[in-house]
Protein backbone atom coordinates (compact mmCIF):
# COMPACT_ATOMS: atom_id res chain seq x y z
CA UNK A 1 0.00 0.00 0.00
CA UNK A 2 1.03 3.59 -0.17
CA UNK A 3 2.26 3.37 -3.74
CA UNK A 4 -0.43 4.87 -5.88
CA UNK A 5 1.47 5.70 -9.00
CA UNK A 6 2.41 3.23 -11.65
CA UNK A 7 3.11 3.51 -15.40
CA UNK A 8 -0.56 3.48 -16.38
CA UNK A 9 -2.60 4.92 -19.22
CA UNK A 10 -3.73 8.54 -19.15
CA UNK A 11 -7.33 7.33 -18.84
CA UNK A 12 -6.69 5.03 -15.88
CA UNK A 13 -4.58 7.68 -14.18
CA UNK A 14 -7.45 10.18 -14.49
CA UNK A 15 -9.89 7.56 -13.19
CA UNK A 16 -7.67 6.86 -10.18
CA UNK A 17 -6.92 10.54 -9.49
CA UNK A 18 -10.66 11.17 -9.15
CA UNK A 19 -11.51 7.91 -7.36
CA UNK A 20 -11.21 9.14 -3.78
CA UNK A 21 -14.48 11.07 -3.35
CA UNK A 22 -16.69 7.98 -3.35
CA UNK A 23 -14.75 6.73 -0.34
CA UNK A 24 -14.25 10.09 1.39
CA UNK A 25 -15.65 9.04 4.78
CA UNK A 26 -13.61 5.81 4.77
CA UNK A 27 -10.55 7.82 3.71
CA UNK A 28 -11.00 10.17 6.67
CA UNK A 29 -11.44 7.22 9.03
CA UNK A 30 -8.70 4.89 7.78
CA UNK A 31 -5.79 6.72 6.14
CA UNK A 32 -2.77 7.56 8.31
CA UNK A 33 -1.89 11.08 9.39
CA UNK A 34 1.59 12.67 9.16
CA UNK A 35 4.34 12.96 11.78
CA UNK A 36 4.96 16.41 13.26
CA UNK A 37 8.71 15.97 12.71
CA UNK A 38 8.18 15.71 8.95
CA UNK A 39 6.02 18.84 8.91
CA UNK A 40 8.60 20.79 10.97
CA UNK A 41 11.40 19.61 8.69
CA UNK A 42 9.41 20.84 5.69
CA UNK A 43 8.71 24.22 7.27
CA UNK A 44 12.38 24.68 8.13
CA UNK A 45 13.22 24.59 4.42
CA UNK A 46 11.83 28.11 3.98
CA UNK A 47 14.13 31.13 4.19
CA UNK A 48 12.08 32.47 7.12
CA UNK A 49 9.53 30.81 9.39
CA UNK A 50 6.29 30.30 7.42
CA UNK A 51 3.04 31.88 8.61
CA UNK A 52 0.62 31.33 5.71
CA UNK A 53 0.59 27.79 4.39
CA UNK A 54 -1.30 26.06 1.59
CA UNK A 55 -2.23 22.40 1.87
CA UNK A 56 -2.68 21.48 -1.79
CA UNK A 57 -4.75 18.38 -2.67
CA UNK A 58 -5.75 18.45 0.97
CA UNK A 59 -8.24 15.57 0.71
CA UNK A 60 -10.12 15.10 3.97
CA UNK A 61 -7.62 17.24 5.89
CA UNK A 62 -5.17 14.70 7.34
CA UNK A 63 -2.12 16.89 6.73
CA UNK A 64 -4.13 20.11 7.18
CA UNK A 65 -4.82 19.09 10.78
CA UNK A 66 -1.11 18.70 11.58
CA UNK A 67 -0.36 22.07 9.95
CA UNK A 68 -3.12 23.78 11.95
CA UNK A 69 -1.74 22.24 15.14
CA UNK A 70 1.57 23.99 14.40
CA UNK A 71 -0.21 27.34 14.81
CA UNK A 72 -0.04 28.16 11.08
CA UNK A 73 -2.68 29.99 9.06
CA UNK A 74 -3.69 27.23 6.66
CA UNK A 75 -5.64 27.32 3.42
CA UNK A 76 -6.74 23.98 1.97
CA UNK A 77 -7.30 23.43 -1.76
CA UNK A 78 -8.91 20.24 -3.03
CA UNK A 79 -10.82 19.44 -6.26
CA UNK A 80 -13.09 16.64 -5.01
CA UNK A 81 -16.24 17.98 -3.40
CA UNK A 82 -16.82 14.92 -1.20
CA UNK A 83 -13.25 15.04 0.14
CA UNK A 84 -13.67 18.79 0.67
CA UNK A 85 -16.94 18.20 2.57
CA UNK A 86 -15.11 15.86 4.97
CA UNK A 87 -12.37 18.44 5.45
CA UNK A 88 -14.84 21.25 6.12
CA UNK A 89 -16.65 19.07 8.64
CA UNK A 90 -13.38 18.18 10.47
CA UNK A 91 -11.86 21.68 10.29
CA UNK A 92 -14.72 24.21 10.15
CA UNK A 93 -12.43 27.18 10.89
CA UNK A 94 -10.21 26.64 7.85
CA UNK A 95 -10.44 28.37 4.48
CA UNK A 96 -11.10 25.39 2.22
CA UNK A 97 -11.33 26.04 -1.53
CA UNK A 98 -12.21 24.05 -4.60
CA UNK A 99 -9.20 24.00 -6.93
CA UNK A 100 -6.50 22.07 -8.76
CA UNK A 101 -2.72 22.11 -8.51
CA UNK A 102 -2.52 23.32 -12.09
CA UNK A 103 -4.85 26.27 -11.30
CA UNK A 104 -4.68 27.33 -7.66
CA UNK A 105 -7.35 29.82 -6.51
CA UNK A 106 -4.88 32.03 -4.59
CA UNK A 107 -3.13 35.33 -5.23
CA UNK A 108 0.42 35.46 -6.57
CA UNK A 109 3.09 35.37 -3.82
CA UNK A 110 0.49 34.87 -1.08
CA UNK A 111 1.86 31.87 0.90
CA UNK A 112 5.14 30.96 2.61
CA UNK A 113 4.86 27.20 2.16
CA UNK A 114 2.93 24.72 0.03
CA UNK A 115 2.45 21.20 1.38
CA UNK A 116 1.31 18.26 -0.73
CA UNK A 117 0.52 14.99 1.07
CA UNK A 118 0.40 11.81 -0.98
CA UNK A 119 -0.82 13.60 -4.09
CA UNK A 120 1.95 15.12 -6.22
CA UNK A 121 1.86 12.08 -8.54
CA UNK A 122 -1.68 13.03 -9.59
CA UNK A 123 -0.55 16.47 -10.79
CA UNK A 124 0.56 17.46 -14.25
CA UNK A 125 4.03 18.07 -12.83
CA UNK A 126 5.46 20.93 -14.90
CA UNK A 127 2.37 23.20 -14.97
CA UNK A 128 1.70 22.40 -11.32
CA UNK A 129 5.25 23.41 -10.30
CA UNK A 130 4.91 26.66 -12.27
CA UNK A 131 1.57 27.36 -10.57
CA UNK A 132 2.89 26.45 -7.11
CA UNK A 133 5.85 28.78 -7.67
CA UNK A 134 3.39 31.56 -8.57
CA UNK A 135 1.54 31.39 -5.24
CA UNK A 136 4.75 30.98 -3.19
CA UNK A 137 6.68 34.00 -1.97
CA UNK A 138 10.39 34.00 -2.91
CA UNK A 139 12.23 32.01 -0.22
CA UNK A 140 9.08 29.99 0.46
CA UNK A 141 9.13 26.21 0.36
CA UNK A 142 7.32 23.39 -1.45
CA UNK A 143 7.07 20.21 0.62
CA UNK A 144 5.80 16.86 -0.65
CA UNK A 145 5.21 14.06 1.85
CA UNK A 146 4.62 10.37 1.18
CA UNK A 147 3.42 7.69 3.57
CA UNK A 148 4.94 4.33 2.64
CA UNK A 149 4.74 0.93 4.23
CA UNK A 150 7.95 0.05 6.04
CA UNK A 151 9.09 -2.78 3.78
CA UNK A 152 11.94 -3.74 6.13
CA UNK A 153 9.27 -5.48 8.24
CA UNK A 154 8.62 -8.93 6.69
CA UNK A 155 4.83 -9.13 7.08
CA UNK A 156 4.47 -5.58 5.75
CA UNK A 157 6.68 -6.33 2.74
CA UNK A 158 4.66 -9.45 1.94
CA UNK A 159 1.37 -7.61 2.37
CA UNK A 160 2.61 -4.77 0.14
CA UNK A 161 3.86 -7.22 -2.48
CA UNK A 162 0.48 -8.96 -2.60
CA UNK A 163 -1.87 -6.01 -2.33
CA UNK A 164 0.04 -2.82 -3.13
CA UNK A 165 0.00 -1.16 -6.53
CA UNK A 166 2.32 -2.98 -8.97
CA UNK A 167 4.95 -0.24 -8.81
CA UNK A 168 6.79 -2.19 -6.13
CA UNK A 169 9.58 -1.03 -3.90
CA UNK A 170 11.55 1.24 -6.16
CA UNK A 171 8.82 3.80 -6.71
CA UNK A 172 9.28 5.57 -3.40
CA UNK A 173 12.92 6.18 -4.15
CA UNK A 174 12.51 7.46 -7.69
CA UNK A 175 9.14 8.67 -9.00
CA UNK A 176 8.20 10.49 -5.81
CA UNK A 177 11.23 12.78 -6.16
CA UNK A 178 10.38 16.37 -7.09
CA UNK A 179 11.23 17.08 -10.72
CA UNK A 180 13.70 19.92 -11.38
CA UNK A 181 12.11 23.28 -12.19
CA UNK A 182 13.82 26.62 -12.88
CA UNK A 183 11.80 28.43 -10.18
CA UNK A 184 12.98 26.05 -7.45
CA UNK A 185 16.37 25.26 -5.93
CA UNK A 186 17.32 21.54 -6.07
CA UNK A 187 15.18 19.46 -3.73
CA UNK A 188 16.26 17.82 -0.49
CA UNK A 189 14.97 14.53 0.89
CA UNK A 190 14.45 13.12 4.39
CA UNK A 191 12.69 10.12 5.92
CA UNK A 192 10.73 9.80 9.17
CA UNK A 193 9.40 6.81 11.09
CA UNK A 194 5.68 6.74 11.65
CA UNK A 195 2.99 4.23 12.61
CA UNK A 196 -0.74 3.72 12.51
CA UNK A 197 -2.70 1.71 15.06
CA UNK A 198 -4.67 -0.92 13.16
CA UNK A 199 -6.57 -4.19 13.44
CA UNK A 200 -6.81 -6.69 10.59
CA UNK A 201 -10.26 -5.28 9.77
CA UNK A 202 -9.21 -1.65 9.84
CA UNK A 203 -6.06 -2.34 7.78
CA UNK A 204 -8.24 -3.95 5.12
CA UNK A 205 -10.43 -0.82 5.32
CA UNK A 206 -7.29 1.28 4.74
CA UNK A 207 -6.37 -0.84 1.72
CA UNK A 208 -9.89 -0.25 0.37
CA UNK A 209 -9.21 3.53 0.21
CA UNK A 210 -6.25 3.18 -2.19
CA UNK A 211 -6.86 4.23 -5.76
CA UNK A 212 -5.84 0.95 -7.39
CA UNK A 213 -8.51 -0.81 -5.29
CA UNK A 214 -11.12 1.97 -5.65
CA UNK A 215 -10.75 1.94 -9.43
CA UNK A 216 -11.00 -1.88 -9.72
CA UNK A 217 -14.20 -3.63 -10.85
CA UNK A 218 -16.40 -4.57 -7.88
CA UNK A 219 -15.69 -8.37 -8.05
CA UNK A 220 -11.95 -7.75 -8.30
CA UNK A 221 -12.10 -5.30 -5.41
CA UNK A 222 -14.02 -7.78 -3.25
CA UNK A 223 -11.51 -10.53 -4.07
CA UNK A 224 -8.52 -8.31 -3.15
CA UNK A 225 -10.08 -7.34 0.17
CA UNK A 226 -11.11 -10.93 1.01
CA UNK A 227 -7.60 -12.24 0.28
CA UNK A 228 -6.05 -9.41 2.30
CA UNK A 229 -8.29 -10.30 5.24
CA UNK A 230 -7.21 -13.97 4.97
CA UNK A 231 -3.54 -12.98 4.77
CA UNK A 232 -3.76 -10.87 7.93
CA UNK A 233 -5.74 -13.57 9.77
CA UNK A 234 -2.93 -16.02 8.98
CA UNK A 235 -0.02 -13.90 10.34
CA UNK A 236 0.78 -13.96 14.06
CA UNK A 237 1.61 -10.21 14.03
CA UNK A 238 -1.82 -9.23 12.72
CA UNK A 239 -4.21 -12.12 13.41
CA UNK A 240 -5.89 -10.68 16.49
CA UNK A 241 -6.30 -7.40 18.31
CA UNK A 242 -4.50 -4.13 17.63
CA UNK A 243 -1.01 -3.73 16.16
CA UNK A 244 1.16 -0.90 14.83
CA UNK A 245 1.36 -0.66 11.06
CA UNK A 246 4.93 0.59 10.53
CA UNK A 247 5.21 3.49 8.10
CA UNK A 248 8.14 5.38 6.60
CA UNK A 249 7.33 8.95 5.63
CA UNK A 250 9.52 10.31 2.85
CA UNK A 251 9.64 14.09 2.47
CA UNK A 252 10.97 16.30 -0.31
CA UNK A 253 11.39 20.05 0.01
CA UNK A 254 12.48 22.67 -2.51
CA UNK A 255 12.88 26.38 -1.90
CA UNK A 256 11.29 28.92 -4.25
CA UNK A 257 14.08 30.98 -5.84
C1 LIG B 1 -4.27 10.23 -1.78
S1 LIG B 1 -5.26 11.68 -1.61
C2 LIG B 1 -4.31 12.66 -0.46
C3 LIG B 1 -5.16 13.60 0.35
C4 LIG B 1 -4.44 14.32 1.50
N1 LIG B 1 -3.41 15.19 1.03
C5 LIG B 1 -3.88 13.32 2.50
O1 LIG B 1 -2.66 13.29 2.68
O2 LIG B 1 -4.66 12.58 3.10
C6 LIG B 1 -4.97 12.49 -3.15
C7 LIG B 1 -5.81 13.76 -3.34
O3 LIG B 1 -5.36 14.44 -4.50
C8 LIG B 1 -6.48 15.06 -5.09
N2 LIG B 1 -6.12 15.40 -6.48
C9 LIG B 1 -6.09 14.59 -7.56
N3 LIG B 1 -5.70 15.28 -8.65
C10 LIG B 1 -5.46 16.57 -8.26
C11 LIG B 1 -5.02 17.77 -8.91
N4 LIG B 1 -4.72 17.77 -10.21
N5 LIG B 1 -4.90 18.90 -8.17
C12 LIG B 1 -5.18 18.90 -6.86
N6 LIG B 1 -5.59 17.80 -6.18
C13 LIG B 1 -5.74 16.65 -6.86
C14 LIG B 1 -7.58 14.03 -4.94
O4 LIG B 1 -8.87 14.59 -5.08
C15 LIG B 1 -7.30 13.50 -3.52
O5 LIG B 1 -8.02 14.19 -2.54
UniProtKB/TrEMBL annotation:
GO process terms (BP): methylation
Which SUPFAM superfamilies does the record cross-reference, listed alphabetically?
Answer: S-adenosyl-L-methionine-dependent methyltransferases (SSF53335)
Q: Which residues cross the membrane?
A: none
List, alphabetically, the InterPro entries matched.
Diverse_substrate_MTase, Methyltransf_11, SAM-dependent_MTases_sf
Annotated GO MF terms? S-adenosylmethionine-dependent methyltransferase activity
Name the Pfam families on file.
Answer: Methyltransf_11 (PF08241)
Q: What positions does the domain Methyltransferase type occupy? A: 54-143
Q: Which family does it belong to?
A: Belongs to the methyltransferase superfamily.
- Can you name this protein? Methyltransferase domain-containing protein
Tell me the organism.
Answer: Amycolatopsis xylanica
Amino acid sequence: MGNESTPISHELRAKRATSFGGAAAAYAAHRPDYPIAAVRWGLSGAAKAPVNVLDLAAGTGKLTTTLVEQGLTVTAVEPDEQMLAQLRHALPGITALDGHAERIPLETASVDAVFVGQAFHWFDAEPALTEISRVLRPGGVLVTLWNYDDLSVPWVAEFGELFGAPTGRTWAASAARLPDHPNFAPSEQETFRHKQRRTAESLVATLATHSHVLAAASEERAAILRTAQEFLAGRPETASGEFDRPIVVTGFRARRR
